[in-house]
């Protein structure tokens, strides 16, 4: 393809032009970027140096995201790419890369929360009485279990609660989809969340 | 505070900021002792800067050579150029000649007030950029003779 990662073509620290004295070697090769998009999963396997494999994700739609303060991870659908510190083009084309801020589906996390704390998350208006009765928050529990649940700390910061109300959480991608073939990350909370919310709002 | 000047959120990888039930410790900061008898500056421990290339609060280890030099330029962001002078022997004439080499070294925000002419100790680390393979680990300000208070400028 012609992409090489050598430094022999660059000028030296003193500014001198380096002589071209040997051809490109295979160990300094580079490959085309994955530019992982959102869509039905499509992953290409690449044989790399040493016979090892890399999984180049061309299209992904889900990943495992962690809720740090609660110490849990759930596999969720990725909805959209919302912010990228390096390049706005990557936001426009919904490209998944490490460090991109994405919106993920909140349902697995809400279900876990309702199971654990027996409380409804997010101030959802017009929840019909029948839906509320069926939700995990109000299922039958023994007195012992109820006591245990009451003792747990179920506080969630307000910014997160609002996101649960809309069903979409902001998260940051921490895996490298073009290398591992996965788009995993963690949910933004606290100062980081404020920082990125402000950035997103200023862009709009 | 004002250390969030970049477009991405600056934080220390080793510190988890979102502990449940309120912040466990206000301004939790990770720092390390770089070894070899070098003292980690108080500014590194108490400061609020984020620098992933800092030897005390970032993800670089100092190993290999330890060199010293005189600061020649501080114009770059978080890096300095040092000048190391040495004498080279010419066997035919049995005499020496002066030579020098410039080294680019990363300067952590832990070291404040580094000026041209200061002596600095640098330690070798992994390549941090095209020319930077060293990291400042000690700083010794230039001694003015008798350190008179008044300095011509």
Automatic annotation (TrEMBL), chain A:
| Phosphoprotein among keywords | no
For this protein, the record's PROSITE patterns field holds: RIBOSOMAL_S8E
A Pfam family cross-referenced in the UniProt record is Ribosomal_S8e
Locate the compositionally biased regions of type Basic residues. Answer: 7-25
Key words, A-Z = Ribonucleoprotein, Ribosomal protein
- One cellular component (GO) term of this entry: ribosome
Q: Which InterPro entries is this protein grouped with?
A: Ribosomal_eS8, Ribosomal_eS8_CS, Ribosomal_Se8/biogenesis_NSA2
**BP GO terms, sorted:** translation
Q: Which domain of life is it from?
A: Eukaryota
Using the UniProt annotation, give all residue ranges assigned to the region (Disordered).
1-25
Q: Return one GO MF term.
A: structural constituent of ribosome
Where do the coiled-coil regions begin and end?
A: none
UniProt cross-references to NCBIfam families, sorted A to Z: eS8
By sequence similarity, the record places it as follows: Belongs to the eukaryotic ribosomal protein eS8 family.
* Name recorded for this polypeptide: 40S ribosomal protein S8
Q: What organism does the UniProt record list as the source?
A: Coemansia erecta
Automatic annotation (TrEMBL), chain B:
User: What Pfam families does this protein map onto?
Assistant: Ribosomal_S17, Ribosomal_S17_N
Recorded hits in Gene3D superfamilies, A to Z, give: 2.40.50.1000
Q: Which GO terms describe its cellular component?
A: cytosolic small ribosomal subunit
CDD domains per the UniProt record, alphabetical: Ribosomal_uS17
Q: Which UniProt keywords apply?
A: Ribonucleoprotein, Ribosomal protein
Tell me the ranges covered by the Small ribosomal subunit protein uS17 N-terminal domain, including all copies: 4-67
Superkingdom, according to UniProt?
A: Eukaryota
Q: Tell whether Chaperone is among the UniProt keywords.
A: no
Q: Which InterPro entries match?
A: NA-bd_OB-fold, Ribosomal_uS17, Ribosomal_uS17_arc/euk, Ribosomal_uS17_CS, Ribosomal_uS17_N
Its Gene Ontology molecular function terms? Answer: structural constituent of ribosome
GO BP terms, alphabetized: translation
Family membership? Belongs to the universal ribosomal protein uS17 family.
Q: Which NCBIfam families match?
A: uS17_arch (TIGR03630)
What's this protein's name? 40S ribosomal protein S11-B
This chain's source organism reads Coemansia erecta
């Amino acid at each position: 393809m012609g992409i090489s990662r050598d430094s022999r073509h660059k000028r030296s620290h003193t500014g001198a032009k380096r002589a071209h004295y040997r051809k490109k070697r295979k160990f300094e090769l580079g490959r085309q970027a994955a530019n992982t998009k959102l869509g039905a999963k499509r992953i290409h396997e690449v044989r790399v140096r040493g016979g090892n494999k890399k999984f180049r994700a061309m299209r992904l739609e889900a990943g495992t995201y962690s809720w740090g303060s609660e110490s849990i991870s759930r596999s969720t659908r990725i909805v959209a790419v919302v912010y990228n510190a390096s390049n706005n083009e990557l936001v426009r084309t919904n490209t998944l890369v490490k460090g991109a801020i994405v919106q993920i589906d909140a349902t697995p996390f809400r279900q876990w929360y309702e199971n654990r704390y027996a409380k409804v998350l997010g101030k959802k208006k017009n929840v019909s009485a029948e839906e509320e009765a069926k939700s995990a928050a109000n299922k039958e529990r023994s007195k012992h279990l109820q006591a245990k649940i009451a003792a747990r700390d179920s506080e969630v910061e307000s910014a997160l609660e609002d996101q649960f109300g809309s069903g979409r959480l902001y998260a940051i991608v921490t895996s490298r989809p073009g290398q591992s073939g996965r788009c995993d990350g963690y949910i933004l909370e606290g100062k980081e969340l404020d920082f990125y919310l402000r950035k997103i709002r200023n862009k709009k | 505070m004002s250390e969030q000047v970049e477009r991405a959120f600056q934080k220390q990888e080793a510190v988890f900021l979102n502990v449940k039930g309120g912040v466990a410790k206000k301004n939790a900061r990770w720092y390390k002792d770089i070894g070899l008898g070098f003292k980690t500056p108080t500014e590194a421990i108490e400061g609020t800067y984020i620098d992933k290339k800092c030897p005390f609060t970032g993800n670089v280890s100092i190993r290999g050579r330890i060199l010293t030099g005189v600061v020649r330029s501080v114009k770059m962001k978080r890096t300095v150029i040092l000048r190391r002078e040495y004498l080279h022997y010419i066997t035919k004439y049995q005499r020496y000649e002066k030579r020098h080499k410039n080294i680019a070294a990363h300067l952590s925000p832990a070291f404040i007030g580094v000026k041209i002419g200061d002596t600095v100790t640098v330690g070798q680390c992994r390549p941090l950029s095209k020319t930077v393979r060293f990291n400042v680990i000690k700083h010794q300000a230039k001694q003015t003779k008798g350190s008179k208070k008044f300095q011509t400028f």
